[in-house]
Each structure stands twice: as structure tokens, then as C-alpha cells.
Amino acid sequence: MLRVIKDSGKKTCLSRFPLLKDIETKLAAEKTREEAQQLLEQKKKLAIAYELHTKQVEDKQYAQDFDHTTIPQHSAPQIKRYSGAPKLLIKINIIHQNRTAKDVDFLQILPKYAPIIKNVDILLIAPGFHDSVDVYNLQIKNMIKNITILNTFDLDDLQFLISVNRLNNFKQMKLAAACFGLSFNHWTMGIAFFCDRQKEINAGVRSSIARRLVGVHARDFLTQKA
Asked: What highest taxon heads this organism's lineage (predicted)?
């Protein structure tokens, strides 16, 4: 009787052995597939990163080699180079518009900088008061057009400086609300007394001035008709 039970146990163990072996084989195969998939995904990521790096290097070299004098000249934009990388400086001088009256339309020139520019500095020189609502609305529409074009740039950095003749003159800052139409989020804003960058005041997105400008953008910019 004891021998029968012992033999039965052996048979049971032997019958289970192929099943355990099959499970182990399946688990090993599954692990191999997962490792192969992980390796494939890693190779794809490396290929994308390499392609992106190559494009960045090529774009940087293209920007460094580009002869910006081939772009029609205008008094508003200037190119400055910092460590070889070009930066576009734009002076929007609304007070003395007659100085640019004979220039080529700036809105036609600005898009030509898009392939070579990653960094932009904008200086807004706005009037202390606006002659009329119609003139103010025309200035808003012009600012919107500038921002719309800048939204086509692949930017790394944009700095917006407002020149004022009194630091508490909010009316002079209102056109700067155009910045809140930028699709590029990593931009900064500052305020300077008569363009003096040495005494620039940072106007962060959480500042009271920025919050007021958000209201101006919603009320005066988003309601403009084409």
C-alpha cells in the first residue's frame, strides 16, 4: 500500500514536470520579447535625439553663415551676434513713426528673419497718451500683426522691454499687452525709464502690471476685427 502511494507521487511529479518546463519556456520567451521591444524603443529615442541634435547644429551654422544684409534694410530691426548666435533687436517706435515712413513695410521684412533667429529683443517706445480711439485701435492691429508673424518663429528666448517716461504711466504700457498673444511661453517683460536698461524693472507674469495687461489684451486686443 505504501509502495503504491509512493509510485503515485512519482507519477504525479513526472506528469507536472513538462508543464513547469513549458511555463518556464514561455516566461523566458516573453522576457526576451520585452527586452527586444525595450531595446527597439531605446534605439528609436536615440535616433530621434541624434536627428534633433543634427538639425540644431545645422540650423545654428546656417544662422551664423547667413548674410542678413541680403534682407531689405529697415530702421526697426537690427542683428546682434552673441557667441556667434544672432539675436534680432526690434525697435517699435510709435512716437516717431515718421522716421520709418520711407522704409519698406516692416511686416514684409520680419518673416525673412524666421529661418535664422532664435532670440528676439523687442523695445516698445509708445506714446504717453493716444490721440484717439481710432489711432489706438490701428496701433493695436499693427502690434497684433507683429505678434502673429513672431508666432511663426522657432524661438528659444524673447524679451520685451517697455520704455516709459513715468514708471506709473500705465497708459504708455497698454500696447505691450500684445505679448499675451504669443504662442511662445518663455518670454519676459521689463519696464525701463527712457530706454535705460541699467534701471530696468522686471514685470513678471504674476506682477500687478502683467495682470492689468492681461485685462487690456482681453478687452482691447481679442475684440479687434480683421
From this structure: Eukaryota
